[in-house]
Structures are given as C-alpha cells and as structure tokens.
Amino acid sequence: QDLMDAPGTGLPPMWQPSTRKSSCSSCSQSGSSDGGPSNGCSHERAPLKLLCDNMKYQILSRAFYGWLAYCRHLSTVRTHLSALVHHNIVSPDVPCSARAGLTADIWQRYLQDSTSYKDQELLRLIYYGGIQHEIRKAVWPFLLGHYQFGMTEAERKEADDQIRTCYEHTMAEWLGCEAIVRQREKESHAAALAKCSSGASLDSHIQRMMHRDSTISNESSQSCSSGRQNHARLQSDSSSSTQVFESVDEVEQMEDGKQSKIPNGTVPNGACSPDSGHPSSQNFSIASGFSERSFSNEDSALDTNKSSGSSQGKAGGSDVPGPQDADGARQEEKLQGQDSLEGEFAPGGSVDFVPVGESSSGVLRDRDTVALTVVESWADSEAEKQSLVESEDNLSEEPEMESLYPQVDSLAVADLANSETSAVSSSGVTYSPELLDMYTVNLHRIEKDVQRCDRNYWYFTPANLEKLRNIMCSYIWQHIEIGYVQGMCDLLAPLLVILDDEALAFSCFTELMKRMNQNFPHGGAMDTHFANMRSLIQILDSELFELMHQNGDYTHFYFCYRWFLLDFKRELVYDDVFAVWETIWAAAHVSSAHYVLFIALALVEMYRDIILENNMDFTDIIKFFNEMAERHNTKQILKLARDLVYKVQTLIENK
C-alpha cells in the first residue's frame, strides 16, 4: 500500500498510479474538507480481509466434513462390523499372562477339579497361547463339542460309548449298501464283457465261413504267401482296435486274473461290421471298461481261422512241420471252445450259429462257472475288501465307466435274470434305487480323494487311509442329501491325525461340519465372507483397498476362496494347521465367531508392502499366495489377527 501511495517519479504517465477516490463517503468528505490528497482508509483493505475469512471458512468446512466422514465411518463400523466381534474385550494379561497357552499341568488340574479353572479362562489361554501338543487329543473334543466342559469321567465315557454305537450302526448300514453297489458293478462289467465278446465271436464266425467257401490253393509257396498277407492284415486290425480302445490299458489292472472268464449273459441287439474285425462304433461307449485281453482273444481267434484254413490247404498237397500242427490244433480247440460259449449267448437271436461237434455238457459246465463268477458274493474279509477298494480307485479314474453306474440296470444278464441281485443287504435292509445311485456316485468321489489326501504326510499309511475312508463314508451316509464335496477329506485329515480314533474323529468331524458345511457350494456363507472382507479392509486399510479397486477391482476377494473353504489347511504345514484351528475354535467364545476373516486379513496385511510396491493385480496376488503356501510365519499371523480384532473392538467402543 505504501508503494502504491508513493509518487511514480521517472515512470511514464501511463504507468503512474492514479489517485482513487475512496468508496467510503465519510472518508471522501473529510478529505475534501481538509483540501489535501486522500491517503485511503481501512475500507480499502476489505478484499484482503475477505480472502482471509474465506480461507478460514474453508478450513472449518474441511474439518467439519472430515469429522462427519469419521462419524459416518464409525456408524458403518458399528452397523456392519459390530456382529463380527464380541464387544467385551478379553485381556491377555488378566488375571494372568496367557502367552504360554494351555499346558499339560493346567489341564491335569482341571480334569482333577473342574472348579479350579473356569471354561472362559481355559479358552482365553488357548486363544492367546495355543495348546501343548501332547494334550491336543484330550482337549480338541471339548473345543469341538463332543464333550462339554465340566463333564465327569463317567459322563465322558458314556458319551464315547454312545457315539461308538452310533458309528458302528452307521458303518453296518453303508457297508450293506456298498456290497450291493459292488455287486451291481460286477454285473455291469460282466454284461459289458459279454457284449464285447459276442461282437468278436460274430466277426470270427463270418471270417471262418468266408474262408471255408473260398478256393484253397494246394501249393505250399502260395499258402505261405497267403498266410503272411493275412497275418499282416490281422496286425493292422489289431493295431486299429488298440487305438480305438487305448483307454482299456488303465482298467486291465482291476480284474485280478479273472478276465479269462467270459461272463454268461445276453447283450442288447447291435449291428457289428464284418469288415472291421471289432465291435461297431455304437458299442464304444461301454468298451472303455473292458479288458484288453478280450480284444487280444479276438485277434488270436481270427488268426487261428486264417492258419486253420491254410493248414487245410496244405494237408492236400504239401507236408507241414509237426510243431505247427500242434500249435494249430491247440488254437483250433481254443477257438471252438470260445465259439461254442459265445454262440450260446448270441444277441437277441440275430445269430443262430452253434459249431458242429461241440458237446452241450461242456457248454453247461462253462456256463455254471461264469454264473458263479458273476454272482460272486461280497467278501467279508478285510483283505478282499481292500483289494476291491484299490480296484475301484483305479476304475474311478475312467469317466466313461463312471457314466455307466446309473445305467447298470439297462445292462441285463439274461441267464441270471431270475437271480438278479436285489437291493436287500445281508441284514435284511432294503435300499431304494435312488439311494443306491446316490451312494454310488459319492462312493467313487470319496475313494478318489482319499487316495490322494496328503500322501506325503507320515501318518497316512494304507491302514489310516482306510480309517479316513470309513469316517467319510459314514458321514456322507448320514448326510446323503448333501453328498460328498471335494475338500471334505482335507477337513477330516487333521482331526484323524490328532485323535487317531475312528468313532471320536467321526463325532468331532460331524461337529466341525456344522460350521464348515455352509462354506461349500450348497451353502451361502462364502459370499458373506467376501462382503465382510471388503468392509474390513476398506475400514482398516483404505490405501490397500484403493489399490485393489484400481488394479482390476479384485475387491471381490475371490483369491480367499480356498482359505475360507478349508480353514487355511492348504496354506500351512500340519503343525501350524493345528495351532490355527484350535485358535479359531477358542476365538468363537473369546473374541469373534468370524475369526477366519481376521486371519485372512492378517495374511493380506502381512504382505501389504510387497503388494503395494509391486502394484499387484488379481492374477499377481493369486500367484503370489499360491507360491507362499506353507511358508507363512503362523505365530506372526495369529498375533496380527488378534490385533485386528482388538482394533475393530476399540472402534466400536469409540475409545
């Protein structure tokens, strides 16, 4: 203002400041009465004052709106997250430090006198310090609800007896159903093998009749040349058949040396090509379960026809070495035996051919043998049961054979129609066809997963895998309407490792699945977990939330799916799984029934800086956590999860 009032000497007239008249009338009147120049007044400083007032107003507005956003934030926390945690904050140091967890001494004193420790005190010790490994087998049934805290030893024994009786009764039921399922599968395999063998028999008959009607040369050289050509053509047919049925190799291991027995039965009508040397294409859907031995028999039968025709020609005009005569005779006998048996089971009367000179008594003996093979009773011994389980594991890898199981009734064995296996077990329990079909599907799913469940862990020997299978089949039998879903074996395995008792593990697994069932596709808990994770990270770490939102918006948190489905079982090694699971079970009574959310958030927050620095998108974060599986610092994760729970609790209380 002083510079503006100073005279502008030395400046051009256009740059000299002109004297402004004051906008204030009082100042202009006093200036004119004095007759001197006006020096301005305080009213000329009004724009600067207005600017300061405007800035002050903006500062207050921003502070107000910041406070309002914080209030809305707290309202959101209270409204949407208050149900995720308990409002009562449990201290780790009151009444004593819980860092050491639940030790064997404390547990022994509790068993001797249940009034020495309150239930909540034991749970607090487990929540903050875990359980000593040696007593996990005794404590876990209490945490999972098999026992109630405060039970006496007699009451616990009574509970064990009840669950053992229930488990044995359930096993007896599903074992009876499984025996029927196995019998149905045997009959389906028998019918399928009969269908395949009858097709091969038809082609061999046509080929042999064509050879008998043809002109046979008496020259030895021509006969040898014809034999070589026929042998080459048969090799081509055999290779073609092997290419079409290359999936047969995997099932060949199952038959346990019984494939040489041709099943007794009638197969549905179907056209076979006489030129191809193997069944028509409409039979391929069931051929994948057959033994490759049946196709080799087919090729050998055709080869025998060719060689027998050649030997007949040679007998008229040339000498044939003795060993070849012996081989030809043995092959001819084998062919006649096969033709007679297969001719007996010609499909639907379409082929009415019985080899001349074949005795009916031999056919009857073969039919009796096949009938005994098809209706072979279910083995009660553990050794045969184990062999059947292993064979079914190999079978379950073939999707074509799995598609056969619901349609086994359509594959009828005519000679056994009157003695067809009914859905009645040896104990007299009747099972509906729908129940049998449902159990068949679940049985093969279970056997697939059991065989590949934690194969590298020392505990899972074949005997313990059998225990795992028994428990899972018993649970699914009681919950057949839900059925088996992949991942259930992962939840059962750690329980069996710790408890090492079928009936006790069955009871604890049933209690665990009351919560975990909702995470599987038939439940709706997974979407709720994702929504809660979104709210938690938006409130507790807005910067990381913005990064997730900007880089492809993976705030749906689908990368957490496996974490919630299996309670982090595949993210951690077994010892860490034990610690995390028992903390989750104790947290439900101490701090939060949704503690898995805070463990998941702790996993993300532990690698927060890496995620931000690398600007990870959805694909990057999935790959990162897959590579980090079984490498996490579990103690640090659990500590961070407890801190996050405490942070939400303090936000709710507005402290």
UniProtKB/TrEMBL annotation:
Polar residues bias spans: 215-245, 278-305
SMART domains, per database record: TBC (SM00164)
Bias-annotated ranges (Low complexity): 22-32
InterPro entries in UniProt: Rab-GAP-TBC_dom, Rab-GAP_TBC_sf
Region feature (Disordered): 1-41, 212-336, 341-360
Biased composition (Basic and acidic residues): 327-336
UniProt entry tagged with the keyword Ligase: no
UniProt keyword annotations, A-Z: GTPase activation
Protein name listed in UniProt: Small G protein signaling modulator 1
Annotated organism of origin: Athene cunicularia (Burrowing owl)
Lineage: Eukaryota, Metazoa, Chordata, Craniata, Vertebrata
Gene this chain is encoded by: LOC113485955
